């Protein structure tokens, strides 16, 4: 604790607290009114200030309050309850009296896809690079998995290949990028991290990405950033029906069907969803089959929304099951890794309230879930060895409670929160089956790798924002966590560990000119090892792995800087970061098995560029570029999972008949591979998509990926396979 307070974060906190105590000029709140195009209140919309970590929800009359008030000019984005995203709304002047009145355009279907500078459902520090991928982008690009949603976001990439690929941010993979579904954690005991592979993007209203430290609001695992997938919820008073049918060709063999309907019920609205997907093995360029890349899954959900005297109440239950999901690897002909079953059950309940007494807003969220993951590693027989199948079957329960309240305080906005997150009832059974030379089973050995383990994380946190003068905004955040991990029985026997962690950030945002702002930020975070990192011994997707009960939590010291320029509906943003991670948890392989250890300090640094600019003739341009480097400090050796420098350009057109988009992406050669990676040649890809409204309620869509049919490896992992070759998806989308 003393070390933390003596460091840069402590100095920044002290400086800003001193400024606060000396009574810097108080900020003023801004009252607003959001209306639909017909003049009716836009109730339940989330209103975000572009480039600021400020998001509020409109009440039943469409009213909202921004505190502290942003400096003119500024831009707003409104996100509807069903996931519809408004265009960027420019605010140049304020009314002399009364609230700021904002009227939403009559329609923005197909025109608003990706919005930079906002993530309404995430609580982020000011220097975070935020992006909202809207429902229309999900429908137009038709990503198969969550990891593919991030292809249009600089600084993000995937680890692993095929249907089991895992998203990560700024090279901080393997549990250092937090994945949320409706604000609750998607937890896994996979060493690669959470992939949410069971999630069908059809069911989502959008995906929010925050690149940068998120430990104050979310605790462990958020070094690189946070990804929040938002499910579609119904809106009281509306009845909807939506469906999608898709068929893949070429390198993509996927087929999918999905259905959604909502109706009024008991004064609120009920929504139901169902989906099915299947895919055979994909094909690389020139038709080469990618072995062990097939999968099939199915799922459904029921969600309910009702407005109560206490606020808007939402409840949702979802289930998803994946079967025979392959984990493609270059050595699949020797050892084939397959996930026979992945199951997720999730229940969410949340209440969002408007003003209560002196509090501007109150939010409460409860989550309960269960998760199961089964793995088979099948070693093929050769002249020298017989067949062997190593399996693991891991099950656990999850729960969380989160309370957040906000109010004016000391001339700014104070947010207080409490959170309890638990993974409990974790058990993992491993099995080894041996066969004779004729292929007949001879011996089966079962072992309880983990009999009963649990982790309990309790935390309190606070953030505070206040204007300084007329051109600056100061932001502070502080969080205290206690994490207790217990293991009973299993390979490692009875073990208990308890750690406390202090996270925080301090940031200063200054308007350099009318259209240009800069932010400097320092933050500290932590990451506690997963229960499997500590207590599991058995097969994983890449080999046999042995946990380490004595692992210490990782801690980080993170410096971020950003420049944002915005005028009209265009914007340019430049981000730079330098992250130092202490007690780095490293997976290493001295011989045939993998182990875990704490290895000194690592440093990750990088630069990202984002451009979004509307053009004449209903065109819009999006440009992104990123460069990153990661090294272990003791020997300056490159780290695993650092993406190569790359850039992409997307050009979109949207009009009454439909839309067209094209995307070019290029990546430089990766000549500094990590310890479990190989050099990866540079490559370029070209994607193209179009949609046409056959009728008002029916749309035909086609998407083509890797149209140049390039051969390149999907990742730098030493066992990585080739990426899919030229592929097409043809689909129809209907809505009523």
Topology:
Elements: H1 2-6, H2 8-21, E1 30-35, E2 46-49, E3 55-57, E4 63-66, E5 74-79, E6 89-91, E7 100-103, E8 114-116, E9 129-134, H3 135-141, H4 146-149, E10 156-159, E11 166-169, E12 177-181, E13 184-185, E14 204-211, H5 215-218, E15 225-231, E16 240-250, E17 254-265, E18 268-279, E19 295-308, E20 311-326, E21 335-353, E22 361-379, E23 388-409, E24 412-435, E25 441-468, E26 472-488, E27 495-511, E28 516-527, H6 531-535, E29 537-540, E30 543-546, E31 554-567, E32 570-582, E33 585-588, E34 594-598, E35 601-615, E36 619-632, E37 637-638, E38 646-654, E39 658-667, E40 683-695, E41 698-705, E42 727-735
Q: What's this model, at a glance?
A:
With 736 residues, the chain is mainly beta.
What are its keywords?
736 residues, Maltoporin, Chain A, 22-stranded antiparallel barrel, 5% helix, globular, disordered N terminus
């Amino acid at each position: 604790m003393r070390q933390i307070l003596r460091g840069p974060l402590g100095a920044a906190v002290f400086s800003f607290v001193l400024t606060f105590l000396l009574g810097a000029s108080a900020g003023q709140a801004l009252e607003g009114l959001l209306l639909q195009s017909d003049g009716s209140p836009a109730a339940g919309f989330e209103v975000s200030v572009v480039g600021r970590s400020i998001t509020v929800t409109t009440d039943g009359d469409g009213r909202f309050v921004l505190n502290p008030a942003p400096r003119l000019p500024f831009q707003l984005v409104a996100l509807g309850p069903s996931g519809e995203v408004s265009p960027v709304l420019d605010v140049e002047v304020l009314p002399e009296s009364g609230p700021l009145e904002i009227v939403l355009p009559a329609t923005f279907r197909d025109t608003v896809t990706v919005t930079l500078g906002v993530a309404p459902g995430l609580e982020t520090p000011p220097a975070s690079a935020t992006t909202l991928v809207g429902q229309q982008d999900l429908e137009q690009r038709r990503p198969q998995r969550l990891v593919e949603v991030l292809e249009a976001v600089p600084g993000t990439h995937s680890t692993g290949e095929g249907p089991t690929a895992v998203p990560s941010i700024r090279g901080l993979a393997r549990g250092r990028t937090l994945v949320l579904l409706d604000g609750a954690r998607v937890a896994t005991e996979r060493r690669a991290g959470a992939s949410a592979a069971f999630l069908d993007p059809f069911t989502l209203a959008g995906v929010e990405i925050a690149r940068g430290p998120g430990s104050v609001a979310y605790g462990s695992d958020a070094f690189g950033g946070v990804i929040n997938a938002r499910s579609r919820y119904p809106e009281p008073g509306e009845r909807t029906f939506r469906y999608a049918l898709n068929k893949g060709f070429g390198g993509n063999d996927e087929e999918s069907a999905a259905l959604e309907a909502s109706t009024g019920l008991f004064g609120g609205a009920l929504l139901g969803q169902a989906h099915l997907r299947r895919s055979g093995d994909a094909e690389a360029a020139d038709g080469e089959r990618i072995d062990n890349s097939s999968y099939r899954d199915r799922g459904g959900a029921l969600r309910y929304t009702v407005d109560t005297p206490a606020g808007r109440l939402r409840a949702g239950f979802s289930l998803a099951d994946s079967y025979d999901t392959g984990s493609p690897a270059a050595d699949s002909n020797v050892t084939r890794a397959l996930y026979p079953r992945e199951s997720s059950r999730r229940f969410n309940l949340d209440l969002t309230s408007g003003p209560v007494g002196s509090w501007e807003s109150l939010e409460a969220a409860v989550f309960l879930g269960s998760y199961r993951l089964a793995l088979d590693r099948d070693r093929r027989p050769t002249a020298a060895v017989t067949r062997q199948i190593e399996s693991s079957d891991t099950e656990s329960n999850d729960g969380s409670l989160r309370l957040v309240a906000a109010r004016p305080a000391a001339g700014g906005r104070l947010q207080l929160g409490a959170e309890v997150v638990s993974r409990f009832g974790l058990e993992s059974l491993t099995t080894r089956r041996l066969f004779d030379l004729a292929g007949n089973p001879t011996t089966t050995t079962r072992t309880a790798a983990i009999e009963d383990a649990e982790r309990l994380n309790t935390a309190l946190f606070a953030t505070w924002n206040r204007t300084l003068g007329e051109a600056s905004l100061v932001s502070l955040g502080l969080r205290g966590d206690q994490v207790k991990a217990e293991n009973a029985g299993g390979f490692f026997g009875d073990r208990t560990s308890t750690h406390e962690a202090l996270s925080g950030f301090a940031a200063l945002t200054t308007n350099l000119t009318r259209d240009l702002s800069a932010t400097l930020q320092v933050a500290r975070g932590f990451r506690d090892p997963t229960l499997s990192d500590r207590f599991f011994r058995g097969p994983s997707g890449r080999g046999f792995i042995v946990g380490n009960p004595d692992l210490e939590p990782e801690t980080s010291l993170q410096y971020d800087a950003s420049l944002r320029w915005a005028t009209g509906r265009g914007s340019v943003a430049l981000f730079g970061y330098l992250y130092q991670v202490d007690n780095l948890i490293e997976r290493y392989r001295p011989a045939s098995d993998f182990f875990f250890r704490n290895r000194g300090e690592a440093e990750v640094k990088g630069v990202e560029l984002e451009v979004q600019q509307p053009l004449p003739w209903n065109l819009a341009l999006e440009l992104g570029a990123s460069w990153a480097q990661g090294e272990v400090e003791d020997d300056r050796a490159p780290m695993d999972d650092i993406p190569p420098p790359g850039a992409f350009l997307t050009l979109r057109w949207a009009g009454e008949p439909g839309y067209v988009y094209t995307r070019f992406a290029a990546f430089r050669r990766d000549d500094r591979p990590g310890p479990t990676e190989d050099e990866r040649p540079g490559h370029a890809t070209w994607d193209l998509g179009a949609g046409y409204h056959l009728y008002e309620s029916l749309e035909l869509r086609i998407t083509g990926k890797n149209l140049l049919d390039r051969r390149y490896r999907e990742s730098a992992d030493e066992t990585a396979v080739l990426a899919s070759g030229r592929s097409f998806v043809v689909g129809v989308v209907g809505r009523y």
